[in-house]
Specification:
The complex is a heterodimer of chains A (about 625) and B (about 350). Chain A has about 625 residues and is α/β, with parallel strands linked by helices. Chain A folds into four domains: about 220 residues, Pyruvate-ferredoxin oxidoreductase, PFOR, domain III (Pyruvate-ferredoxin Oxidoreductase, domain 3), CATH 3.40.920; about 190 residues, Thiamin diphosphate (ThDP)-binding fold, Pyr/PP domains (Rossmann fold, 3-Layer(aba) Sandwich); about 80 residues, no CATH class; about 100 residues, 3-Layer(aba) Sandwich (Rossmann fold). Helices cover about 35% and strands about 20% of the residues of chain A. Chain A is built from 21 helices and 22 strands. In chain A, the strands form five sheets. Chain A has a seven-stranded mixed sheet with strand order 11-10-12-13-15-14-20. In chain A, strand 21, helix 20 and strand 22 form a beta-alpha-beta unit. In chain A, helix 7 packs antiparallel against helix 8 and helix 9 crosses helix 10. Chain A is globular, with a radius of gyration of 27 Å. The relative contact order of chain B is 0.11. Chain B starts with about 30 loop residues before the first helix and ends with a strand. Chain B has a domain of about 220 residues: Rossmann fold (3-Layer(aba) Sandwich). Chain B has about 350 residues and is α/β, with parallel strands linked by helices. In chain B, a hairpin with a 2-residue loop joins strand 9 and strand 10. In chain B, the strands form two sheets. Chain B has an eight-stranded mixed sheet, sandwiched between helices. The mean pLDDT of chain B is about 95. The longest helix of chain B is centred in the last third of the chain and has 16 residues. Chain B has eleven helices and twelve strands. The chains are: A alpha/beta (about 625), B alpha/beta (about 350).
Chain lengths: ~625, ~350
């Protein structure tokens, strides 16, 4: 059959269904396929905290949004062009996210009496019958029934058959976008190698969905989104937490240190541990500790022993690690602390995203305890910044906070990955052996960057004692001397400030110093802000954009850069934290744009704030 | 990385003095900690381990000042967490001889969780648990091992907390080496310390330590010359359980019940007695339950020595085995391959 192919520049598809419907798998499969096809993309998985939330309810809806295109893509998209819903709750929850005249693909079996009731919809108000969807292009299929029919020869029970209905959807959407299904067949073969019947069923249903789309004559045309013109290089698809793990492994490999990871499972950081545990052939020691405190303390012990030590968690876990962080700062040993931020405070919104732990990272310890803080801007940037966290920790003998968040940790994008040889060198200089004739060893003597030596057990002649009590500026022995304490507080701060001379200067991602307004973001808001300033540029509005990745210390030119702008807008997924730091350090009258809804900014929200600010 | 320590030539020449640091000791005069420090320093040269391969790690409390006084590597860390820090160090550097110094508050109260998990994991290190049944550094509050009714600054009407039986707790936490020593019995303590270091796994040595400022005489029943022989039972592997001023009493097991028998009446002889077997978990469990107040009539004697010793795989041993196996399965690590993943593509 020959079909007309309609060319599209970019598309956003949102898959939504019950948390047991396999939505995340459908989404990640479509993502891998899209990446391999050569589209730029950005994804946003959004799922409930409960493993099996109440079936059929709004609370149990799991979603996966993917924005892909033949053009550069910076965010998972505000609203979607295509909404795939497996049940009534998924439609009710997400209909507001669909563009006008958008397409809805509906599994009608998810709209029976029971599903309507669970979604809190009266039977007479069934959206499939009450004309409320008239503004949209609605395609209704009984996907459950079609799946069962395609498996009528399978020996599997009904429950197992029904579980493969997500493959029907995937096949269907592959056809819509003119894709090959091979990548998913390869995936299924690997996943179900030991379960041939389930493998057969999944492949059968995947193909059935694909062929059904071809023959059902629902669409008069298929859509084609041409590959994106990307810079030359080698690419792969990458998820943020995976990129973080790879960054840590790469840093250990380059610095020729063993990687030690001490941590306790917590959403949304656990995938870092999972990824590291897969690569033990790199000599990675993963230690699932009894609690968050033991996780960081074990890492401190490993660092004292000369390993590249890491702990990762999310806000509540980081709170528990506070005292140990102070110790690591006092000991002046390398330690990387990853905080994959989630909605807070307290247990908060475990599976939702937020940037509300910035103050916790910068200030959250007793006493004067400065620790460098850096943040990643996108899933693939997690690699770069995790690597940077290791470099700074080792070169400056300090714990370093690396901030990611649930949005980029679970989101995916194509990544032009580096060659090992292109990565910055990380130099490790352990203290050397000394003989009895050498003068006494001074463990807290500092170099020109205010950094002390890393003297590890097993090295003869440099035996020394560390501890959390204030120490003498050279010998490291306990000291209660007033002058010494003040000196040590200042010199520890000076060391952290010195890092500003060893990180990149702040650049403008868009616009110039002459632009009318600067949007200053940090971390994961990068994509949404970039989408807006690009869009405004096409409308003739010149906006500058800078995204801060090094927050403590800030890049040394940041003050100068900020002074060039009359208007500065700081969008953050919190109640105003970076803005407090910026106002404090540079005395500039920046304006906040805060979103605290557990989801990333939509481009239009930032656009509206920019336009309002330009008017005044 | 080697799991075992290198024995270096010059090690033989070390003396106790080599392990004394240049720091002034700041424990109260008369504190039981002095005796323990002295024994540890004098045992060190006998281990045959180079000074630079020994690490002392402590938490917070009076006992936790210990590393400052040892001329080895050391860390005075934070309250209750020495156990977790030592675990990480041992995972990173299995060849080091790691000693953990902690107190009853540090290890059984704020650090209770880490202690039980360290014991079950069985890292090869030595825990010296100084038990003085009081909080000394914070100036005299009751601890999790203080007896019910104890009057302290925080319990003027007497403590209503039922105390831990530390060794029974350790048995419950799957400990592979459980022992008890006493600050006033230095010779015995030395034997236990040597055995603790020899044990491949986590060695837990509870040391009764007198706090002469806030809890003086807490262990008087086991140190007082008149009383100690009748109240203490010194355990020796393969030997009958005999105690008493004239070695006139013994213990038998009547079913699960320990019973004191009189060896002077002729009804029982030494050959009838319970023979101590360090390898027997059930009997060790019963022995750790000998926890009577010594002033009570018919109190069971308090045992000292090694209650239990078991050879079980060490965490770091299994860890390095896994790393090695994985390396053999997946080949020499190739960072370029790892970065490329399994689904990459080229843009020309």
């Amino acid at each position: 059959m020959t079909q007309v192919q309609q060319k599209l520049e970019q598309v956003t598809v949102l898959f939504a269904g019950d948390s047991g419907d396999g939505i995340q798998l459908t989404g990640t499969q479509f993502t891998t396929n899209t990446a391999l096809f050569g589209n730029d993309l950005s994804t946003f998985p959004d799922f409930p905290a409960e493993i099996r939330a109440p079936l059929g309810t709004i609370a149990g809806v799991s979603g996966f949004q993917i924005h892909f295109g033949s053009v550069d893509i910076y965010s998972p998209g505000d609203r979607c062009d295509v909404l795939v819903v497996m049940n009534a709750a998924a439609l009710k929850k997400n209909i507001s996210r669909l563009k006008e005249r958008g397409t809805i693909i509906v599994n009608t079996s998810g709209f029976d009496k029971r599903n309507l009731r669970l979604a809190g919809i009266k039977e007479v108000e069934n959206p499939l019958n009450n004309h409320s969807l008239e503004g949209f292009k609605v395609h209704e299929f009984d996907i459950t029934k079609l799946t069962r029919e395609s498996l009528k020869d399978s020996k599997l029970g009904t429950k197992d058959r029904d579980r493969s209905k997500n493959m029907f959807v995937l096949g269907f959407v592959y056809w819509m976008y003119n894709r090959k299904i091979d990548s998913s067949i390869d995936f299924l073969k690997a996943k179900f190698a030991a379960k041939p019947e389930i493998l057969d069923a999944n492949i059968t249903v995947l193909k059935a969905g694909y062929h059904f789309a071809d023959t059902c004559e629902t669409f008069s045309n298929r859509f084609e989104v041409k590959p994106t013109k990307m810079a030359t290089g080698s690419y792969r698809n990458i998820i943020g937490n995976q990129a973080t793990a790879l960054g840590l492994i790469a840093a250990a490999h380059k610095s020729k240190l063993d990687l030690f990871y001490g941590g306790y499972p917590i959403t949304p950081a656990s995938d870092i541990l999972h990824e590291l545990a897969k690569h033990k052939n790199f000599g990675i020691k993963t230690f699932q500790a009894e609690d968050e405190i033991a996780g960081i303390c074990a890492a401190i012990g490993a660092s004292f022993g000369g390993d590249l030590a890491v702990t990762a968690s999310s806000g509540p876990g980081i709170a528990l690690k506070g005292e140990a962080l102070g110790l690591a700062m006092m000991l002046e040993i390398p330690l990387v602390v990853v905080n994959v931020q989630r909605g807070g405070p307290s247990t908060g919104l475990p599976t939702k995203t937020e940037q509300a732990d910035l103050m916790q990272a910068v200030y959250g310890r007793n006493g004067e305890a400065p620790i460098p803080v850096i943040a990643a801007t996108s899933p693939s940037d997690c690699f770069t910044m995790a690597y940077e966290a290791c470099r700074i920790a080792i070169e400056f003998m300090t714990p370093v906070f690396f901030l990611s968040d649930g949005y980029i940790a679970n989101g995916a994008e194509p990544w032009r990955y580096p060659k090992a040889s292109d990565l910055k060198e990380i130099n490790v200089q352990f203290a050397k052996e000394r003989s009895q004739d050498d003068p006494a060893y001074l463990p807290y003597k500092r170099n020109e960057k205010f950094v002390r030596e890393w003297a590890i057990p097993g090295t003869k002649g440099v035996e020394h004692r560390l501890g959390g009590l204030e120490k003498d500026k050279e010998t490291g022995n306990v000291s209660y001397e007033p002058e010494n304490h003040e000196y040590m507080v200042k010199v520890r701060a000076q060391k952290i400030a010195e890092i500003a001379n060893h990180i990149p200067e702040q650049d403008l991602d868009n616009g110039t110093e002459k632009s009318k307004l600067l949007v200053l973001g940090w971390g994961s808001t990068y994509g949404s802000i970039k989408t807006v300033v690009k869009e405004l540029a096409t409308e003739g509005i010149d906006i500058a954009h800078a995204q801060i990745k090094y927050i403590q210390p800030m890049p040394r030119n940041l003050g100068d850069l900020l002074s060039k702008f009359d208007k500065i807008l700081i969008p953050e997924m919190n109640n105003g934290q970076l803005i407090t730091l910026i106002r404090d350090q540079y005395l500039v009258d920046a304006k906040p744009l805060n979103k605290i809804k557990g989801v990333p900014f939509e481009a239009r929200e930032i656009k509206e704030a920019i336009l309002n600010m330009l008017k005044n | 990385m080697a799991l075992e320590k290198d024995i270096k030539e010059e090690v033989q020449k070390l003396t106790a003095k080599d392990f004394v640091s240049d720091q002034d000791i700041r424990w109260c005069p008369g504190c039981g900690d002095y005796s323990i420090l002295k024994q540890v320093q004098s045992v060190m040269p006998e281990l045959g381990i180079a000074k630079e391969d020994i690490v002392f790690i402590s938490g917070i409390g009076c006992s936790s000042r210990f590393p400052y006084y040892m001329n080895t590597y050391g860390m005075h860390s934070i309250h209750g967490r020495a156990t977790a820090i030592a675990s990480g160090l041992k995972a990173a550097r299995p060849e080091l001889s790691v000693w953990l110094v902690t107190g009853d508050g540090d290890s059984l109260s704020i650090g209770g969780n880490h202690l039980i998990h360290l014991l079950r994991r069985n890292f090869d290190l030595n825990i010296l648990l100084f038990n003085n049944q009081i909080y000394g550094l914070t100036k005299g509050q009751y601890s999790p091992t203080s007896e019910v009714g104890k009057k302290t600054k925080s319990t003027p009407l007497g403590s209503i907390d039922h105390p831990f039986n530390p060794l029974a707790l350790c048995m419950g936490a799957e400990s592979t080496f459980v022992a008890r020593a006493l600050d006033r019995e230095p010779k015995h303590m030395r034997e236990i310390l040597l055995r603790a270091e020899q044990h491949k796994g986590t060695s837990l040595v509870e040391i009764y330590q007198n706090c002469n400022i806030f809890n003086d005489g807490a262990f008087g029943g086991f140190t007082d010359k008149q009383l100690k022989k009748d109240n203490s039972l010194y355990l020796k592997h393969g030997e009958p359980l005999v105690f008493g001023a004239k070695e006139d009493k013994g213990l038998i097991l009547d079913g699960f019940e320990p019973k004191i028998v009189d060896l002077t009446t002729g009804e029982y002889t030494v050959s009838d007695l319970w023979i101590h077997d360090e390898k027997c978990r059930n009997k060790a469990n019963i022995l750790t339950r000998f926890f009577d107040d010594p002033s009570k009539e018919n109190a069971l004697p308090r045992p000292f020595g090694i209650f239990y010793q078991e050879d079980r795989f060490r965490y770091e041993e299994a860890l390095y085995e896994q790393l090695e196996t994985h390396k053999q399965q997946k080949g020499i690590p190739d960072l370029n391959k790892l970065l490329a993943g399994t689904n990459s593509w080229e843009v020309e």
